Amino acid sequence: MHGYFSREAGATLAKALARAPAALLLGPRQCGKSTLARQLLAQRGDAVILDLQDRVDRARLQEPELFFEAHRHQLVCLDEIQLLPEFFSLLRAEIDRDRRPGRFLLLGSASGPLLRQSHESLAGRIAQVELTPLLLKEVAQAIGWQQLWLRGGFPESLLAAADEDSLDWREDFIRTFLGRDIASLELGLPLPLMERLWRLLAHSQGQTLNASRLAGLLDLRSTRLKQLLAVLEQTFVLRLLPPLEANLSKRLVRSPKLYLRDSGLLHNLLGIETYDDLLAHPQAGESWEGFVIEQLIAAHPRWRPHFLRTSNGAELDLVLERGQRWLVFEIKLSKAPRVSRGFHELVGQLQPERAELIAPVDQAFEARPGIWVRPPLQACNSEGL
User: Fold this and answer.
1) Which of 341, 342, 339 is CA-nearest to residue 370?
2) Architecture of domain 8-130 in this structure
3) What is the spatial distance between Cα 165 and Cα 167, in angstroms, rounded to a whole number?
4) pTM above 0.85, yes or no
């Protein structure tokens, strides 16, 4: 259904397979990993794919050494690799017999154990690629940003026939994620507590992390809470945006900011059903901020994301860093956004290559000399970076 979208990660994945014996494609469940892999494998014509959720496919790996030997000159794709983490040591031995690039493509929903296994067993042998839900750059020719913002980027949600169908799909996803995916990580937490944590995170969208307050609301230790937040980061549903460590004259906020990464899941947790509901919601601005931040980070893969806030409240919503180069963005849900004094002061101190306000405007315009207001798609399509 969504195979016609050209995924930005496709070219990255092809390059990874051209240089490394194995590539690991990671991303949240249902974001399109299998679809992208099958498109790539169809183009190559020399591949075999096994779905490790399928009993018949798993049986074909009963004698893995014999299977690998029989398919040594093909690209072997193993979908849902997190179900067989013990396989990484077998893959290491097989790769060491033949170090040709492009031998294995592994697909997995990220988790701490999966990442540790890949790093420990296949260090120097595997390239890692992240696949996000659908991005504005990928769907802009067919779908408006309003629909993507409301429904989020999971293909089944975004492309549903009606808002109600999309809403139902996301509700099922949340239930499945909490009941199966999180449960499989054996965190030892009851389901209602995990669901409460998710709803608290949704209401904390765009705020700096106050671990002691959140832990108190959940009756958990702060160290336990941070462990849970790390798991949600590893499973690609939560972003902890770190503060910039900059040598400025101001005192800086040191806690990360919290964002649920998919706007559609956020809206379900906040009880937002329609676009009108969204515009009227008191957290519409924070939702828009998180949505745009995800688009900008994905559009600048070699840049490290941060935010910057001083103790007196001056803030840059997103600072992208690459060596000694900086790009800074302020994000406003307004057709007529204004540059704050604090934004201007911080831009003056950082001296970035670009300083932009991202807003739902129809066309870009220069708000002040050197400071542009742009729609999100244009900011994500900037070349030469």
Assistant:
1) 339
2) 3-Layer(aba) Sandwich (3.40)
3) 5
4) yes
